[in-house]
Amino acid sequence: MSKLINGARFLIAYARLVRSVANLDIVFNLINEIVDHEGDEKLAPILALPAVQAMLDRGDPPLVLDLVVLRELPEGTLGRAFAEFIDSRGFSIEDLYRHDPSEQTEARRLQIHLERSHDLWHVVTGFDTDEAGELGLQAFYLAQFEGAIAGTILSAGLLNGVLFRPEDLRRRMDAMATGWGYGKSVRSLLGVDWAALLDQSLSEVRERFGITPELVLSAGRPAAPELAEIPAAA
Q1: 14-61 confidence digits (pLDDT tens)
Q2: Which of 111, 152, 161, 221 holds its CA 20 to 30 A away from the CA of 38?
Q3: Which residues 6+ apart lie within 8 Å of 173 measured at CB?
């Protein structure tokens, strides 16, 4: 019975995600459903990764991103770039702190790490926060580590395009293809102690992971032009 209930909860959350695939609140609620009811099982492949185990073993405190402090960092630092990224989009990051940091299950600690660092991944990689940008970053995630969450979001993004934005499907596919290749080509961003990097130069942080200016540019490129009509065979 519990599996049926969990399945129903997942389907409800997934349906909401299909309606609004770039809404991070819905994404976080979906992740919360997974962690609350099936965390150990669903997240086991990620929890077993050396980078994640190293993070858990280090006992890093949950990441705190204080925009007041980050706005005062020198121009060009990761923390300053993050603050500008959030401010320019009118985002609120208060919901990132809705979990009790004293909850110490490995699944919850991983969830907090992924949620609080998500927009830092945007800043470092160059993916935007519209539908295509979010899907590009999720493809980047999936290229870097196995997990059902990124695959779920990618499938919802495509279904959303089919049902509501068919004119945007090619742009989304371009972003996903870019994110997949991009994520395969650079060092892992998973399990990183982001707090230690906030006062460092963004360009140096990118270089640390093998992220070139060309890769950052590729993350923000528009969709490829429409294919020319193929002439009919004689």
Answers
A1: 898 898 887 777 887 777 777 776 666 778 888 999 999 999 999 989
A2: 161
A3: none
* Cβ partners under 8 Å of residue 9, min gap 6: 33, 37
Helix and strand tally (H, E) in the chain?
A: 12, 0
Closest of 161, 121, 118, 90 to residue 31, by C-alpha: 118
CA distance 115 to 122: 12
Q: How far apart are CA 179 and CA 190, in angstroms?
A: 15
How many Cβ atoms from other residues are within 10 Å of residue 152's Cβ? Answer: 20
Query: What is the pTM (predicted TM-score) of this model?
Result: 0.88
Element (H, E) at 25: helix 24-42
* Residue 195 and residue 63 in contact, taking contact as beta carbons nearer than 8 Å: yes
Phi and psi at residue 229, in whole multiples of 5°?
A: -65, 130
**Rounded to whole angstroms, what are the CA distances from 71 to 1, 63, 97, 117, 210?**
50, 17, 19, 17, 26
- Whole-number Å distance between alpha carbons of 174 and 121: 19
